[in-house]
Structure formats: C-alpha cells, structure tokens
Amino acid sequence: MTFLERPFAAESPRETRTYPNEIMEVDAIPQQNERIVHDYVTALWQDHEFDRVPEFVDDAFTYTDPMLSEPVRGPREFREYLRATEAAFPDFHVLPESVVADDDVVLVEWTLTGTHDGPLEGIPPTGRQLILRGMSTVRLEGGKLTTGRTYWDTADGNAQLGLEFPAVVGQLPKLAYRKLTGRR
C-alpha cells in the first residue's frame, strides 16, 4: 500500500494511551503533518493546482533542489518554480513511495515521472521520458511548510534526458536548432 492509499492516523491532536501505573498523552502532531504533506503532494505535485500554494507554504518558505542555483523563497517564487516545472514537463507526476513523520519534520521518498516537452533552465525540450527517484525533507510550523529540501541524482536525470557527455554532443545540433527556431 502506498502513502496516498493508506488511511491516516487519529484526527484529534492528542490521544491517550494507558500504560501500567500511568496515563500518557501522545502527541499526534506527526500524523497531522503527514496529512498536510499528503494534501500538499496531491494538490501541487499531482493535480498541478498551483494557486493553492499559499494554503500549504508559509510566507518564509524556502525550497532547495539540485537543479536550482539559488533557493526558491516564499509562495510566489515557489508557484513560479512549479509552473516552470510544468512548462518543462507538462505531464509531470510525483508518486510518494514512503513517508516518515517525526514532530515537525516529514520525509518523503518519491518517484517523479514526466516527458521533457518544454524548456528547462535554458535547455530546449528533448522529448525524452524522465523517471526519477528522490527524497524530500519538509519542515512544518503552524500547519504550513517552512522548508522543503529535495534530493535526487542529477547525473541520472541528465543521462535520461541525453544531457551527459558524450551523449549530449550528438544532441547539440538538434538542441541548438530548437533553441534558435523555437521548434520542437
């Protein structure tokens, strides 16, 4: 059963467990944060509902990704980043494989799929399919994401798109032609 298929833990913020000779309250914040991340992944990374970004990310949100030269800051920049990702990979889809939540941190192991049909950081479309496995770490405060860090193998991604040396040498004329003419 995948992360998106399994039921979530208790909806109440606290549950009470009885142990021999004591009663202990167990904080359910990790389960609430897991639920928030579930909704964030579904809305933004699967359904491409980018206008919902402010619902999930704090005004001070910072997002890092190996493809970015600078972190993305705030809801506006993050929405622009997601739109640029969609322009490069119109059919992109992220499927969470496993999730671990502890206090204010949620870790998500995922698989991203998509076809490179648009420009990406100055790289013309290659038309190639991309299947990446990666990991994201998110920190939440007050029910919103404050930090997102994504990790994936950039060499693998470049290889799948034909952008590694020496394979890219054969692609250069086609890429240059596409860049100059605006054709795919």
UniProtKB/TrEMBL annotation:
Gene Ontology biological-process entries: polyketide metabolic process
Name of the protein in its database record: Ester cyclase
Pfam family, one: SnoaL
Species this chain originates from: Natronorubrum tibetense GA33
